[in-house]
Design a protein that fits this description.
Strand order of the largest sheet of chain A: 2-8-7-6-5-3-4
Distance between the termini of chain B: 22 Å
Largest sheet of chain A: 7 strands, mixed
Strand content of chain A: 5-15%
Largest sheet of chain B: 3 strands, antiparallel
Shape of chain A: globular
Order of helices and strands of chain A: EHHEHEHEHEHEHEEHEEHEHHEHH
CATH topology of chain B: Sufe protein. Chain: A
Structural class of chain B: alpha+beta
Distance between the termini of chain A: 40 Å
CATH architecture of chain B: Alpha-Beta Complex
Number of strands of chain B: 3
Order of helices and strands of chain B: EEEHHHH
Helix content of chain B: 40-55%
Oligomer: heterodimer
CATH architecture of the largest domain in chain A: 3-Layer(aba) Sandwich
Number of helices of chain A: 13
Helix content of chain A: 40-55%
Chain lengths: 401, 110
């Protein structure tokens, strides 16, 4: 059932699942509206209608380039979102550069839209190394150094992990990768809009970002491709996006993306500081007041909006349902929410046992969350955990008494 | 929900590794399930099916209770998503395990 703002129940509803999806910012909707009402031209057309569309497209491209400090707007290619950008980067670079080598390195905690293209490439004669991570989720740099060979053409490491919040040392990784003359692709989907990303200074060759993560509309994203990096397109057709990504551009979505990026760039610093305070308050409240609970990920080198915790003896999804009944939306890293029954590969990769991974819970904060909401969640959690622990055959008897 | 301290039969199925584990305690009187309680570690569906199986089995003869199957539990809940049928399986299995435990120990002091 879809609840619009008007017929929303009076009861408290708190949304803390921003990693999964975000409401489009009202200012973005306002910027998109005139285009929705009157835009009809195709940006490839010569007439004035077409040129209006073209202008909107290029303005958005400039804004995206500015956000990540790209050398020029010509390095930004619009896509249908992060999944397409990741596929385009990995398969595109692999296919175009296979004469140089057929080895790719990635980490074991990447998003499925990185892991699965990499796995796919192993069926096409490529060799892929999936680097392990430590207990916080950091890629082991010594390990990376050892795995890099003259055969390595691409390394794909995420900027930050959405599930545990850990931010990777991208600049250090970049230096290693470039010493071996390989390309570095960075999936910044989770990090975008929360931490400043600078492709020029950090030495990033390809960067994935999406619109919804900066409160823009869903279904739009971009791939930054550094000048000189060669890749094969995934989609062939009319040669839009300089031949790299054919298909008439999603102008409306791109206009929204551009506005969202502009707002994000202006407000990121203040907003991230605000979120960090809320995050730390939430983590302290969720872990500090309940026995047998822990934080997932690193205490400080984590995304400003990410509070990932786990509770022993109980299962994440049952916690989610109890939270939902009290109006709070969060997420679990656990099996039952996904399409498979396996617990999250990220939580397994940081060394959690199956049962620990199953007890994990993820809160991702956003622009509209308040301190009052954080305190409400902290207040209701002990009772939920207690109830489910009473119900669980795994809870030690002395804990219930 | 809970345990029966002097239960006549106890059945435990599943394991925490796969994310679902249930224990069913039964008290038997005149070959009928006089009392039944569950404890569950698992997702919402696992808890719901555990609760439902205790509802379905209470007051039934042991023979009748053995016939309560996986699909009966799911149907009584108004159906379950395909991926959750695995949890649903466990609830009926835990009940059957508890009855088998009772049969095995019948007449012996526990």
């Amino acid at each position: 059932m879809f609840l619009s703002e008007e017929n929303m129940p009076k009861a408290k509803r708190i949304y803390m699942d921003h990693a999964a999806g975000r409401a489009v910012d009202a200012r973005v909707i306002k910027a998109m509206s005139p285009y929705m009402a009157s835009l009809r031209g195709n940006p490839s057309s010569v007439h004035s209608f077409g040129q209006e569309a073209k202008q909107a497209l290029e303005e958005a491209r400039t804004k995206v380039a500015e956000l990540i400090n790209a050398e020029s707007k010509e390095s930004i290619f619009f896509t249908s979102g992060a999944t397409e950008s990741n596929n385009m980067a990995i398969k595109g670079v692999a296919h175009r550069n296979q004469h140089q080598g057929r080895h790719i390195i990635t980490s074991s905690i990447e998003h499925m839209s990185v892991l699965n293209p990499c796995k796919f490439l192993t069926t096409k004669g490529f060799k892929v190394t999936f680097l392990p991570v430590d207990q916080y989720g950091f890629v082991d740099l010594t390990n990376l150094e050892e795995e890099l060979t003259s055969e390595t053409i691409l390394v794909s490491i995420m900027y930050a992990n959405g599930e545990i919040g850990t931010i990777q040392p991208i600049q250090k990784i970049s230096q290693m990768v470039h010493r071996k003359k390989a390309y570095l692709h960075v999936d910044a989907t989770a990090a975008n809009g929360q931490v400043p990303i600078d492709v020029s200074n950090e030495g990033i060759d390809l960067l994935t970002i999406s619109s919804n993560d900066v409160y823009g509309p869903k279904g739009v994203g971009a791939l930054y491709i550094k000048k000189g990096v060669r890749l094969e397109p995934l989609i062939h057709g009319g040669g839009q996006e300089r031949g790299i990504r054919s298909g008439t551009e999603n102008i409306l979505g791109i206009v929204g993306f551009g506005k969202a990026v502009e707002i994000s760039r202006a407000e990121m610093f203040t907003e991230s500081e605000r979120l960090k305070k809320l995050r730390d308050r939430l983590i302290k409240g969720l872990v500090g007041r309940i026995p047998h609970s822990s934080l997932n990920g690193h205490p400080s080198k984590r995304l400003p909006n990410n509070a990932a915790v786990r509770y022993s003896f109980i299962e994440g999804e049952s916690i989610l349902l109890d939270l939902d009944m009290k109006g709070v939306a969060a997420s679990s890293g656990s099996a039952c929410t996904a399409k498979t029954l396996e617990p999250s590969h990220v939580l397994r990769a940081i060394g959690l046992k199956h049962e620990e991974a199953h007890g994990s819970l993820l809160f991702t904060l956003g622009r509209r969350n308040t301190e009052e909401e954080v305190d409400y969640v902290i207040r209701i959690m002990p009772e939920i955990v207690e109830r489910l622990r009473e119900m669980s055959p795994l809870t030690p008897k002395e804990l219930i008494e | 929900m809970g345990e029966i301290p002097d239960a006549d039969g106890v059945g435990t199925v599943g394991n925490p590794v796969c994310g679902d584990m249930m224990t069913v305690h039964i008290k038997v009187k005149d070959n009928r399930i006089d009392d039944i309680k569950f404890k569950t570690f698992g997702c919402g569906a696992a808890i719901a099916t555990s609760s439902m199986v205790t509802e379905l089995a209470k007051g039934k003869t042991l023979k009748e209770a053995m016939k309560i199957g996986r699909s009966d539990v799911a149907d009584s809940l108004g159906g379950l998503p395909k991926v959750k049928m695995h949890c649903s399986n466990l609830a009926a299995d835990a009940l059957h395990a508890a009855i088998e435990d009772y049969e095995k120990h019948k007449g012996t002091k526990r």
